[in-house]
Design goal:
Blueprint lengths: L8 H4 L8 E7 L10 E4 L2 E3 L3 E2 L6 E2 L1 E6 L5 E4 L1 H6 L3 H39 L1 H5 L6 H5 L4 H11 L2 H18 L3
Antiparallel strand pairs: 1-6, 2-3, 4-5, 6-7
Length: 179
């Protein structure tokens, strides 16, 4: 009894003949506004994305696949990961990793802008923070203030520490400074 070789899921779905290769990955959310909408001109807006040619679900990231018989189709990253096709999964994993790295760099850049603004706000609130003892008893005994603590944090902390101080200063400023 001969056993039939297991067919690729895309082949079973009649999307083409194996082997398949990913020729491009397209993120349709690029250019979306803060509400996740794309402006298409004439005051018209639409949501990014389309539908997966394999499962029919809505997708934002298109994995453009070409089969051995040159059929081209798009599927989502989830469907690629479910195929069991190591080559396709590797390409998608690299893309997702790069996308996350870019998102992290952008987030840190936005946070750095807030950190610089908080340094300016701290100077505006110097009188307020200078009238509060340091949170560390040993520093308070030497006459140091909360202002000194915050300056020390900005000078000596890593990004996370500076950002934590930034959020604290923003909160205090929202309560004390006029809008």
């Amino acid at each position: 009894m001969e056993t039939e070789a297991k067919k690729h899921v895309f082949e079973t779905a009649e999307l083409g003949t194996a082997p398949f290769r990913c020729v491009a990955i397209e993120d349709t959310s690029i250019g979306a506004d803060e509400n996740g909408m794309i402006h298409i001109g004439g005051g018209q807006m639409t949501k990014p994305g389309g539908s997966c040619d394999y499962c029919g679900n809505g997708i934002v990231t298109f994995c453009w696949i070409v089969s051995k018989d040159k059929k081209r189709f798009k599927v989502g990253t989830t469907c690629v990961n479910k195929t069991g096709d190591a080559g396709l999964k590797k390409v998608v994993a690299k893309h997702i990793s790069a996308k996350r790295k870019v998102a992290r760099v952008k987030a840190v850049a936005r946070q750095e802008i807030r950190i610089e603004a908080a340094k300016i706000t701290l100077e505006e609130l110097k009188g307020y923070f200078s009238n509060i003892e340091s949170v560390h008893d040993w520093k308070a005994e030497k006459g140091e203030t909360r202002y000194d603590d915050l300056i020390w944090m900005f000078k000596n902390s890593g990004h996370s520490g500076r950002y934590r101080v930034t959020r604290f200063i923003e909160k205090v400023a929202a309560d004390l400074l006029p809008a």
